[in-house]
Design goal:
The protein is 37% helix and 15% strand. By secondary structure, it is of the alpha/beta class. Strands 2-8-7-6-5-3-4 form a 7-stranded mixed beta sheet, with helices on both faces. Helix 5 links the parallel strand 3 and strand 4. Helix 2 packs antiparallel against helix 9, helix 4 packs parallel to helix 5 and helix 4 packs across helix 8. The longest helix is centred in the C-terminal third of the chain and has 18 residues. It is globular, with a radius of gyration of 21 Å. The structure holds 4'-deoxy-4'-aminopyridoxal-5'-phosphate. The site of 4'-deoxy-4'-aminopyridoxal-5'-phosphate has 13 residues, from helix 4.
Amino acid sequence: MKRILADRTDLIDASGIRKVFALGATLKDPINFSIGQPDFDVPDELKEEAIKAIKAGQNKYSQTAGDELLKEKIAERVSNEFGWENPAILVTSGVSGGLLLAFMTLINPGDEVIIPDPYFVIYKHLVNMLGGKCVFVDSYPDFELPVEKISEAVTGRTKLILLNSPCNPTGAVYSEEQIKALAKIAAEKDILILTDEIYERFCYDGNCASIVNYYDKTLLLRGFSKSYAMTGWRLGFAAAAEPLRDVIEEMTKIQQYTFVCAPTPFQKAAIAALDYETRDFVDAYRKKRDLIYEGLKGKFELIKPGGAFYAFVKAPAPLEVPAGKKANTGASLLTGQAGSATEFVEKAIAKGVLIIPGNVFSEKDTHFRISYATSNKKIKQGIEILRGLA
Ligand code: PMP
């Protein structure tokens, strides 16, 4: 039979996470450290706003770029925060929608995109799908912004540098100094920055610095999914100052022929969300961060995460295999090599703890990601089991 699938489908490999989910589905009441979404629910007041909008008949398409009131409010917020005058705004179907539109707008085949490694998994696949070339810049072992290495990675084909702070999967928050240094390099070399700030509210040790403050050729993507636990509502936005107004306009054109608009009733609720105080959630998540860090350090090698709700932990070195005996890798469900993080992940899953192997988010397979967006009870149980495996 003629091949029916387009070649680009080969460029996406979602197997790592899917296998963890599939294995998890067979477990009864697992400790689920695999999910990238908050464990609290959308606050009732915001649910009421969405219900009100639906009942009031706000169920049709909105403007392509988004509900006027919501756009105005977002514009006011980013202007106050960054001193932007009359910013360009596009309401997107989640930050994922914003990323696809941004990459479609910016990346020509062969264009290079610099991405600190580890990275949020969809960057790589979207860039590849559009014919771009990912240039990974290693940020191990401390996961700080590798400014020098980024500078060295710039070539004549570099189109974009991606920033994600707080970072998924490491929980790293880049320092003001590092961000300023990167802004300087980007300005000197005249390269665009895309900053994915979906976790900006989940910042535990002071404020998270934003490169928007230091470089006006920055495309800002932020979202509602994580801050208000509305991952299923599919809401985010893209914003830019004057130098990138055209980028937002072209993204809007592509939205018109793809997503059409973000979900209208939820856009109405998002207007209220922007006024909703999330401090209690963040305080609760800071405690979870402390629990996981204090529980694992000593036994595992890990950097204290400053934000988001992830820890990126080094898998323990495997026990020495006595000479003449082969390591037992035969039953490897996730095709983990002997001694790889994937092999450790398999052991953890067998004990009922779902974690994600680091190679889903990285060119290396040495770490695993924990999402601690779960109950404190489960976190404590999970820590005990993981410590027993170290
Ligand atoms: N960026 C990062 C860094 C993320 O972790 C996620 C969600 N896991 C997204 C973007 C996409 O989120 P959404 O599409 O729900 O806004």
